[in-house]
Amino acid sequence: MRGRLLLTLWLFLGLGLSARAQEGPERWREPARAAGVDPALVEILWARAAAQRWPTEELERLIQTSLSLEREGMPGELLLQKALEGMAKQVPPEQVLRVTEQLAGTLRRAHELLQERVPRWRARLPELEERPVRRAFIAELASGQAQGVPVEVLARALEGWMQARSAPSWRDMLAAVRILPEMPVPPERSAELIQAFLEAGGKGAELNQIPAALRMAQQQMRLPAEAIARMATQRIRGGLSPRELLEHMRRGALERPPMQGMGRPGKPRG
């Protein structure tokens, strides 16, 4: 008898969870599709939230915020993905919601920045007029803020890189925005090294290697990272190619270049 009651209770709870998991996505399917979000993502989120006993009101507020951001041209889908990451780690709902609210704030600040600056940047970076490209920059600018770099610092760095003589592509500048927060030196110093790298013709794949190479140089040379970044900037401006600079950094071989006007050791001037 007791076993039958337990089975009945288990079935009741299971059916309740199943009903709750199904009723929400139906209502959000069309709004998600209209906003450009895959309805399947909302369905997965809803099912996992139901299994973890999330408050329905909080879940719906999260979905609504995500779709609102998408309608305004921002990658609001990132909020849903971040929530799924938290659910996979069994993070409490209130903590997940706090993180997604912070993410929404950084996305809005990045969006406002681009709205303001795109008219000035249009001549150098016309691709920002394209929705996918702008969304990619918004996402990286938001990520940089989340890692502690103020959006205005990121904007100044981006403006500096646009002046590079090599005219880097939008993909190269996107990679530069991505690595700036990963550098073990202050953002302004990092931006200077990245700009010198871009001016020497450095591309996205090489840019991505700078943070790790800088840390390797620090381990090899036992000097402050900022001093090494300064030396690296001098070396690439002195004629090293991006590939050569990365190799020198990995080997800890960032000797100071000869002073201007002086020949190399053992070589007569003139």
Structural class by secondary-structure content: mainly alpha
From the N-terminal CA to the C-terminal CA, the straight-line distance is 104 Å
The helix content is: over 70%
The overall average pLDDT, rounded, is 86
Topology record:
Blueprint: H1 2-35, H2 39-51, H3 56-71, H4 77-88, H5 93-121, H6 131-146, H7 151-162, H8 170-179, H9 187-199, H10 204-207, H11 210-221, H12 225-237, H13 242-251
Helix pairs in contact: 1-2, 1-3, 2-4, 3-4, 3-5, 4-5, 5-6, 5-7, 6-8, 7-9, 9-12, 11-13
Structure characteristics:
mainly alpha, 270 residues, disordered C terminus, 13 helices, elongated
Structural description of this entry:
The chain has a domain at 150-255. Helix content is 72%, strand content 0%. The chain has 13 helices and no strands. It is elongated and about 65 Å long. 34% of the residues are buried.
Short description:
This protein has helices at residues 2-35, 39-51, 56-71, 77-88, 93-121, 131-146, 151-162, 170-179, 187-199, 204-207, 210-221, 225-237, 242-251. The chain is mainly alpha-helical and 270 residues long. The protein has a domain at 150-255.
